[in-house]
Amino acid sequence: MKILILNGPNLSRLDIREQSYYGDLDYPQLKSAIENRAAELKIEVDIKQSDSESELISWLHEAADKKQPVIINPAAFTHYSYAIRDAVAMLTAPVIEVHLSNPLSREEFRHTSVVSGVVNGTIAGFGAESYLLAILAMQKLVG
Ligand code: DQA
């Protein structure tokens, strides 16, 4: 099993944005933390980031065709991208939504996720640990 881990816009600039929410971990460190935990669990991961809705959708289409499990942090697209939601809905293997922060404790526009209705579950608010918990949950989901 190779889990596709997708990250949406602005997540590549983690360490220089809103540190009260995202801490000082930079994107390469987040990637390494996920890769290390996955290696311990003997799970293969493919971690990608894009600021482009179109690129994220192409990756979701490929995952659907390959029946690949997906962990996705759609970032700001979470709150308004019906195109991302529709692509997630097409996935053929389990999919988990993750967030570093807890969007429900932030501004009101972040309280809506248009993606949550088409995922197996959501893990939010634990920083990098959200991804690590998602990998564990995915391991259970796919057996
Ligand atoms: C985020 C939360 C979103 O509201 C925000 O737009 C992001 C990051 C998170 O991981 O906490 O870019 O998805």
Low-pLDDT residue intervals, each spanning 5 or more residues: none
The averaged pLDDT comes out at 95
Query: Largest sheet, order of strands side by side?
Result: 2-1-3-4-5
User: Proportion of β residues?
Assistant: 15-25%
Bound molecules: 1,3,4-trihydroxy-5-OXO-cyclohexanecarboxylic acid
Distance between the termini: 10 Å
Element order: H for helix, E for strand: EHHEHEHEEH
Helix count, DSSP H or I runs of 4 or more residues: 5
Derived structural class: alpha/beta
User: What's the total number of strands?
Assistant: 5
Present the secondary structure layout.
Elements: E1 2-7, H1 19-22, H2 27-40, E2 44-49, H3 53-66, E3 70-73, H4 82-89, E4 95-99, E5 121-124, H5 129-142
Parallel strand pairs: 1-2, 1-3, 3-4, 4-5
Helix pairs in contact: 3-4
Bound molecules: 1,3,4-trihydroxy-5-OXO-cyclohexanecarboxylic acid.
How would you describe the overall organization of this protein?
The structure is a single chain. The chain has five helices and five strands. The chain has 143 residues and is α/β, with parallel strands linked by helices. The protein has a five-stranded parallel beta sheet, sandwiched between helices. Helix 4 (82-89) links the parallel strand 3 and strand 4 (95-99). It binds 1,3,4-trihydroxy-5-OXO-cyclohexanecarboxylic acid. 1,3,4-trihydroxy-5-OXO-cyclohexanecarboxylic acid is lined by residues 10, 73, 75-76, 78, 99-101, 103, 110. 1,3,4-trihydroxy-5-OXO-cyclohexanecarboxylic acid (DQA) binds next to loops.
Protein traits:
about 140 residues; five-stranded parallel beta sheet; binds 1,3,4-trihydroxy-5-OXO-cyclohexanecarboxylic acid
